[in-house]
Amino acid sequence: GQVRYSVPEEAKVGTVVGRLSQELGLEAGDAEARRVRVVWQGRRAGVEVSGASGALVVSSRLDREELCGKSAPCSLRLELLQERPLRVLHVELEVTDINDNAPLFPAARKNISMAESSLPGSRFPLEGASDADIGANAQLSYTLSPSEHFRVEEENSNSRSKSLFLVLTKPLDRETVPVHRLVLTASDEGRPSLTGTMELLISVLDVNDNAPQFNQSVYNAVLPENALEGTLVSRVNATDPDLGAYGDVIYEIDNIVPASASDLFSIDSKNGEMRLKGALDFETVNFYELHIKAKDKGLPPLSSHCKVLLEVLDVNDNAPEVWVTSLSVPVPEDASVGTVVALLSVSDRDSGANGRVQCSVWPTSPFSLESRFLGSYSLVLREALDRERVSEYEVEVRAEDGGKPSLRARRSVRVPVSDVNDNAPAFSQAVYTVLAPENNAAGAELARVWARDPDEAGNGRVSYSLWEGVSGASVSVGGWRPASSYVSVDAESGRVWAVQALDYEELQVLQFEVRAVDAGEPPLVGNATVQLFVVDENDNAPMLLASAGGGPGLDPFAGRVVGSSVEAVSDSGSETLWAWAAWGAPAGQVVAKIRAVDADSGYNAWLRYEVLEPRGKGPFRVGLYSGEVSTARALEEADGPRQRLVIVVRDHGEPSRSATATLSVSLVEGGDKALTVAGSSSSGLVLPAEGGAAAGSASASTNMWLVVAICAVSSVFVLALVLYGASRW
Questions:
Q1: What pTM was estimated for this model as a whole?
Q2: pLDDT of residue 53
Q3: Residue 241 backbone class (left: φ over 0; alpha: ψ -120 to 50; beta: rest)
């Protein structure tokens, strides 16, 4: 709001000008806590806000004449700014006049020359006194010391000032009184009244009894304040009816009001033309009163006086001025629309349309200007801010007056935007796919995740963690295990490292979630999923399984791993078991099948079978990928009674791993000899003897064992067929 206070000039320091408790709602002692202070617009005066009482008090000497000169009323504009909370009270302070200045004449003595031929009623202009006060305190009246020849007369003309004349009331006689000494007293109408005096020294002259006379007593002139030096102000004209030198008129400037303008004007002594000698300034003085004297060349010279009243017109020669009276920065980016950022004061020393100022702000977004009082503006927030988009604004307040052409002023206001935690960390990828080889070292770096938070300082500082809520994996041994048992995440760098060596045979895929949390209040969270695929390495050699023998009358055999090789052993526990094949067996007859598995996967588990020994073209071969041992050609007696095969099983890994199997194949005849061999000991083949009784008993024994052997071999053969069929299935 706006309030008015008044205070007399010369009031004592500490005098209370106004109580602010009602206007601002202040209690005693609140002014200092709420940071209430005075902000001046233009001229300054000695008042301040008392921190103890909260009242507006006089702080130093107040002189109305020094502050406002002759202006009435003497009104000073100021703002009472309360910063906590932000409020502005516009105050108009009127300094009232007291009668503290006595009338003052331009000089203590005035010399006047008068011809003794002057007629009663003749008037001689006098310079009146001036009083710096205003109103009744500046209303002057004049009295003259007692005299039978003179009196003082005041005349109100249509000009802005009164004319003072010394009037002759009785003819002069130089021979009787050559010099008259009088005292002119000026009194104001103040209470109490103050006076000033000037001595009049009147010399009575003889001869030249006609003074020059102006064709008008007052000349009016008007000039714009930007008039150039040498511009004609006015031309005065006076005539003297005397002849000769007594009729020659000389012009001169007798007096100028204000006195500070004495060097501003010149007059041509012969033709009476007045011209400018300097520059005019409407804002300093807008009205001049020049007293012109015309005198002749008589001895003594006679003179007359006139006035030239010059009015100065305002031109638009002053640009507006913009001040920042309060600035509340930085502005948080979540500040609401309508928040006041700054208070500004705008003024223009020109008058009328030249002094009317319009303000705007550039850029137009996100700020605007609001004005509720003349010359006072508020810079307010018009749109929501986003520090991540614009962290600082350079706002320019532009002021333009109404002159033709208009003048402009600019004031830049820097408005930084402070950060709030309004952005959650965001990962560069929603899903990270990581390939990690198995058998890695514990502590090895598997991947790096990275999240960006556009906020600053703590609001943008990101820390990483493994979220246990949904992170884990099902393993082949032990069921479900949490992801933290395999990996860990560095809180600062986002480095994902292995807690232990990974084993593809135990874990193929691990999926877990990484969280990024900023340090804001409250903290915001971002998530990313990491899919870790364990890449298989060839770290497992092939392992031989039980295989079924082929061919007529053969028993099954099992595989046993011994170091890096596998040997075939019999059910009876003997060290070596022979597989049997009949002489004359056709090519392609399956003798046995080697079976092996590899715990790895893919190429690392793809197995191939090769005959390592004997090298070259033997009677047996092995299927490259099936592991079936079969005859390469028809078996002959030349092949010998026994064949020893060393079969190697290799995978396709780099480097490849292998296992070996040793298979001994006994070659027998078909029929009875095959059965005899089947019943013999494992140390060798026992063939029947020929001739004698021994042959008979041996034959009987052989028949019994033959029946047993046939039954046993038949049973084993049927079982072998079943197992072979199952393995093929």
A1: 0.48
A2: 66
A3: alpha
